[in-house]
């Protein structure tokens, strides 16, 4: 049975410290009733977007600086079977997990020399590896992205990168805002580029909802003479998004 909702938008604290303390207290309460922290985290999903949007900008910056990695590993969890495989690799010595920060890396004839600092330490360590694989997810900082499409849109001032490094600025319906904050009539987006406005923008249910709303917006933006006769979108719980076009 899902854990009952313990927060509403009316009762939720509007500071990062307040939200964190409230969440930790609820985890302890949940243990009494036989639930664990996973159930408590999952119960926040229906209001996560609104909780993020209600945080003042300084609080959002504080979250990204201090708590984002902790939220990610608790909210986006691996499947139990994968967890067991990783545990086996660790026990055999094939896999070592070290929490810390990469300070730099440099290509060498034998691979890559990585300099890093472990969490809680100021001692720099060097590690020689064959490959470096970035597993931190999709690059969302469009201020620095070197991807040709993003760089071109940025150079033409057709997009306005978010000041938090979370995608780009958009209107409520996904229309892209240009460098002057003007709404585009041609460019729309969803998913990762909208993380500034919609924090939960990488999981399938949220992406499906964004896609449904965006499809409706695009259909309604078409001239009446070229719109499909029936441009409504039906949502089936079993099949997800299903455009009905005739």
Provide keyphrases for this structure.
single chain, two-stranded antiparallel sheet, 16% strand, 36% helix, three-stranded antiparallel sheet, 3 domains, 246 residues, 7 helices, alpha+beta
Q: Helix fraction? A: 25-40%
Given helix and strand content, the structural type is alpha+beta
For the record, give the distance between the C-alpha atoms at the N and C termini, rounded to a whole number: 41 Å
- SSE order, as H and E? HHHHHEEEHEEHEE
Main sheet overview: 3 strands, antiparallel
Give the topology.
Elements: H1 16-32, H2 37-43, H3 48-54, H4 57-75, H5 80-92, E1 100-108, E2 111-118, E3 124-129, H6 148-155, E4 175-177, E5 183-188, H7 204-221, E6 233-236, E7 240-243
Antiparallel strand pairs: 1-2, 2-3, 4-5, 6-7
Helix pairs in contact: 1-2
Characterize the structure shown:
It is a single chain. This protein is of the alpha+beta class and 246 residues long. The protein has 3 domains: 16-75, no CATH class; 93-129, no CATH class; 148-243, no CATH class. The chain is built from 7 helices and 7 strands, in the order αααααβββαββαββ. The chain has a 3-stranded antiparallel β-sheet, with no helix packed on it. A hairpin with a 5-residue loop joins strand 4 and strand 5. Residues 235-246 have low confidence and may be disordered.
């Amino acid at each position: 049975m899902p854990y009952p909702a313990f927060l509403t938008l009316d009762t939720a604290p509007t500071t990062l410290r307040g939200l964190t303390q409230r969440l930790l207290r609820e985890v302890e309460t949940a243990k009494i009733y036989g639930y664990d922290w996973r159930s408590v985290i999952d119960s926040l999903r229906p209001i996560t977007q609104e909780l993020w949007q209600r945080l003042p900008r300084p609080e959002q910056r504080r979250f990204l600086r201090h708590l984002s990695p902790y939220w990610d590993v608790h909210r986006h969890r691996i499947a139990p079977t994968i967890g067991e495989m990783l545990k086996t690799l660790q026990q055999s010595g094939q896999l070592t997990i070290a929490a810390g920060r990469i300070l730099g890396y440099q290509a060498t004839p034998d691979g890559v020399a990585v300099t890093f600092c472990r969490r809680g330490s100021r001692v720099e360590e060097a590690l020689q590896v064959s490959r470096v694989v970035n597993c931190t997810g999709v690059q969302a900082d469009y201020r620095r992205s070197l991807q040709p499409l993003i760089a071109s849109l940025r150079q033409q001032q057709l997009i306005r990168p978010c000041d938090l490094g979370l995608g780009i600025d958009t209107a409520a319906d996904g229309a892209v805002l240009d460098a002057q904050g003007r709404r585009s009539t041609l460019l729309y987006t969803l998913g990762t580029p909208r993380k500034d406005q919609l924090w939960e923008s990488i999981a399938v249910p949220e992406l499906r909802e964004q896609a449904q709303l965006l499809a409706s917006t695009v259909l309604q933006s078409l001239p009446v003479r070229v719109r499909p006769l029936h441009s409504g979108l039906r949502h089936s719980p079993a099949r997800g998004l299903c455009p009905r076009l005739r």
